[in-house]
Amino acid sequence: MSTYAFKTEVSQLLELITHSLYSHKEIFLRELVSNASDAIDKLRYLSISDDAYKAISLEPKISVYVDDKAKTIVVSDNGVGMNEEELAENLGTIARSGTKSFLEKLSDSDRKNSNLIGQFGVGFYSVFMIADKVEVISRKAGTDKAFCWTSTGKGEFSIDASVREGFGTDVKIFVNSEGEEYLSRWSLDSLLRKYSNHIAYPIHLLSQEPKYDDKGKEKGKEFKDEQINAASALWRRPKNELQDKDYIDFYKSFAAEDAEPLFWIHTKAEGTIEYNSLFYVPSKVPGDIYYPLAQQGVKLYIKRVFITDKEANILPQYFRFVRGVIDSDDLPLNVSREILQQNRVMTTIQQASLKKIFSELESLAKNNPEKFAKFTELFNVQIKEGLASDWQNQKTLLGLVRYKSTGVEGWTNLEDYKNRAGDRKTIYYITGNNEERLRASPLLEAFAARGLEVLIGSDEIDELVFASLGQYEGMSFKSVNHSDSDEDLGKDAAAGAADEENGKRAVDAAKRILGERVKDVRLSKRLSKSPSCVVMDKDDPTLQYRELMMRISNTEMPEPTPILELNPGHALVKKLADLESKRGTEAQNEDLAQDAEDIAHILLDQALLAEGQKFVKPAEFIQRLNRQLAK
Fold first, then answer.
1. What is the pTM of this model?
2. pLDDT at 55
3. What is the CATH number of domain 500-536+560-630?
């Protein structure tokens, strides 16, 4: 037996690797399986390119064996293996990667075609997070001698002659108390499916499991050997080899969904940067779509090995409903292979992926309106989120967003609205939290009478989106909830030949009675049926905007004071005007004064009610209404 000292300050470096470099202990299994895959891939390459290896019969297989009683886990492969010198060199020097050295010897074209994963030579040492001792028994392909590398990770290792049937490598882990949770078949099964399901070679999980009789009593053990992984990466297969069923079955397994996806986007990018991507748009809204800390729907793989689903910037947040995979051979990681390094490669993949999704949605809108309408029903809110946050892609998002409208049935886009508007330079919209209530809003009466189309913004985010847009193709956005939105309604009141003198008396009465409850009272050009409505001054936020900002910021905001508009042709407004005209001669009549006060407050409160706003004192509104109904 030969004993060696590690060739670096191992005590310090292993301390870093096993306690600081990796955030999750479970990473050890991913690293060992990845190394095993690399070893098989090296032998596969050599069996083609090197005459010394061409006679070797290769049936690739990776095995993971757990023995809970002995507290050991063995990861075994039938790859290229190592001799004594290579064991000392590759495992005796921290941060020296056999894979990296091997890659350096390949030509550029051969390197591109290899599936090797290792880059840093530290992945193997993650095993010491859960191990008291590690034995590596290896036999190099084409030789008949095996060697055993042994270390506790404390500063030295030993190499001794050993025995192994067949070429390849066994990594035997003597599990410490930190790793006992991985001594169950269920735990290892879960990790292998999570990280290594799409490794190109079959992975078998072996264990001794309890055997029970008909009465549920244990009667010994049985050996269980099961292939765990799919051993295939569907996204890397050519599209012409795949049927719809292949995509659908993979989605159901990958996304843990029973329903079929709405559609999918499969891309193989070739050129300077190569990657494969497969994106799915679900046919129903994911249950976690409003949980910002949920894991991303897009998983990142490098050479088929799962890396992360925590990379929040793979796609913009508003596309968090997208499920799928990005797999690249070119992506660099940090030394722990856990955190993606921000670099030109990732930026290019992100931009290209986003562009591809946009292109597919635009094509769907043009060529399959029925399916795009379904997409709109599901994810229109998320497209609106993009409008409020992604200025760089706002033009594209404006082409994809859809709205309900007073002018047409179903959904409409901004381009069609503009075409219907003719020479008009204003896009009118109304916002609130209920489409049915918005369609019945008094604010729309005169717009409907004059054939002016208004967009219905019934999603909470609409208030924020419209306020941030500014304009579209030379048209400005204007909220009918604001006081200056009646500029296209003409000079006369929408009620027709109204008694302007009576209207002015009603305005004076309402101003006097309502006081600070209103910013102003004026005659309306937008009402034809309802007696009153409320709007906000053009420089004030709407009531809907205030509620949204309060929810977003979780802080109280000053309540904006509305402007009350009155319809001078309505009987209730005429009644208020009549009571005001009697005020001078019958000032001592308390009943008349109470009637005027009731009607003024009712006109304001019912206008607020029509816009879905809450009353500060609903009991007072009910009392006033009951008094007037009784009369």
1. 0.75
2. 86
3. 1.20.120.790
**Contact 62/76 with Cβ under 8 angstroms?**
yes
Instruction: Give the model confidence (pLDDT) of 403-429 as tens digits.
Output: 999 999 999 999 999 999 999 999 999
The rounded distance, in Å, linking the Cα atoms of 87 and 84 is: 5
- CA 448/CA 439 separation, integer angstroms: 10
- 401: number of Cβ within 10 Å: 19
CA neighbor of 22 nearest in space, from 310, 328, 334, 296: 334
Domain residue limits, the chain: 2-227, 243-372, 500-536+560-630
Angle at alpha carbon of residue 233, lines to 227 and 238, rounded to 5°: 140
CA-based nearest residue to 282, from 258, 262, 311: 262
From the number of C-beta atoms within 10 Å of its C-beta (0-12, 13-18, 19+), residue 287 rates as exposed
| Burial class of 300 by CB neighbour count within 10 A (0 to 12, 13 to 18, 19+) | buried
Contacts of 237 (CB under 8 A, 6+ apart): none
pLDDT score, position 120 = 39
How far apart CA 507 and CA 518 sit, in angstroms, is 12
Q: Do 2-227 and 500-536+560-630 fold alike per CATH? A: no
Q: Which residue has the tokens 């309408």?
A: 373
Are 218 and 211 a contacting pair, CB within 8 Å? yes
The reply to whether CATH 3.90.1570.10 applies to domain 2-227 is no
Q: Which class in CATH covers the domain with range 243-372?
A: alpha beta
Confirm if 131 and 30 have CB atoms less than 8 A apart: no
| Low-confidence spans in the chain with pLDDT less than 50 | 95, 99, 102-103, 111, 114, 116-117, 119-120, 335-339, 493-498
